[in-house]
Task: inverse folding
């Protein structure tokens, strides 16, 4: 280590310092508390910290092989825990309150829970750039990998692995936290009761402002079954709404309706014809833990051929207007 002091006998000023901690068997640990949330920080050695008030390009610099941060607690009605590891961290400040940093980030969260959803074993991997100026903070990155091993939403089980092509998180002075990302689901599983979607994929964009999630999603099931939708939901209560449209789906004996789902053999199927649909659904978490759903559903069916139990129908054309009801079900108009 080294330091330089100016005007030591009159008005001492620490002009510069250079500190290196090189014992790789040791680490530097810091315990903090932020708004009743305990945060533990561990910096792996070697650690290099350097500062100089005479360097206009680099007032302060820090380098470390690994920075670990762990936190767990409750925000509003949402429970969470997280462990973040930043490897090859490099940070520099041109002024005391104007800094940039970059690192490779690995974040794990094992248990997150809201009123009507939960997420287990959530993981993030990717490069991160940080910019800090006065009261503004911005995190950006690209081509990050996000995986969820087990999640539950509205009684549906889900898991996925995805790529965030472009993402950004920012906090501007008194404004709420904002986040946005472009995403692609590389693998995705969705199960409800005993049924699951067959080879679902999705891509789109999402944003988070304060505790509200909004997303635009373009999805497919077994490549041909297309669904395009817009979702808005509270991360705290789980309440939200969904509007979606299904472009015309052509069914045949080689691709009947049942081919888009896996599970027990249904007592009905559609083996020919065309389907088109759109819906606007809202849901709310009730005090007993159940989820109520309301909203209209419109289905256009043309030249439908299929089976129901032991019956067979041919060339059926109609428009079905229905509503989602509570308890969960459908009521025709």
Result:
């Amino acid at each position: 280590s080294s330091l330089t002091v100016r005007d030591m006998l009159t008005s001492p000023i620490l002009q510069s310092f250079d500190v290196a901690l090189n014992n790789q068997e040791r680490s530097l640990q810091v315990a903090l508390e932020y708004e009743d949330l305990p945060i533990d920080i561990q910096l792996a050695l070697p650690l290099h910290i350097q500062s100089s008030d005479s360097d206009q390009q680099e007032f302060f610099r820090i380098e470390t092989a690994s920075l670990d941060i762990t936190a767990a607690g409750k925000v509003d009605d949402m429970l969470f825990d997280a462990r973040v590891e930043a490897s090859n961290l490099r940070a520099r400040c041109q002024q005391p309150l104007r800094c940039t940093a970059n690192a490779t980030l690995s974040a794990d969260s094992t248990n997150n829970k809201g009123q009507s959803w939960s997420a287990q074993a959530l993981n993030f991997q990717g490069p991160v750039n940080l910019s800090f100026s006065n009261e503004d903070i911005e995190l950006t990155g690209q081509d990050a990998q996000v995986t969820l091993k087990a999640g539950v939403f509205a009684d549906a089980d889900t898991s996925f692995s995805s790529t965030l092509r472009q993402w950004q998180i920012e906090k501007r002075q008194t404004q709420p936290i904002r986040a946005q990302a472009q995403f692609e689901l590389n693998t995705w599983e969705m199960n409800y009761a005993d049924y699951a979607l067959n080879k679902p994929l999705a891509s789109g964009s999402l944003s988070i402002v304060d505790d509200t999630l909004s997303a635009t999603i373009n999805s497919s099931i077994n490549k041909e079954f297309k669904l395009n939708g817009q979702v808005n939901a509270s991360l705290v209560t789980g309440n939200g709404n969904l509007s979606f449209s299904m472009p015309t789906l052509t069914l045949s004996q080689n691709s009947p309706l049942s081919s888009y789902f896996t599970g027990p053999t249904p007592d009905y199927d559609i083996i020919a014809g065309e389907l088109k649909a759109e819906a606007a659904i809202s849901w709310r978490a009730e005090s007993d833990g159940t989820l109520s759903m309301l909203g209209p559903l419109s289905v256009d069916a043309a030249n439908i051929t299929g089976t129901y139990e032991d019956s067979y129908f041919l060339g059926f054309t109609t428009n079905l207007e229905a509503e989602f009801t509570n308890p969960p079900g459908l009521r025709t108009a």
In short: The radius of gyration is 27 Å.
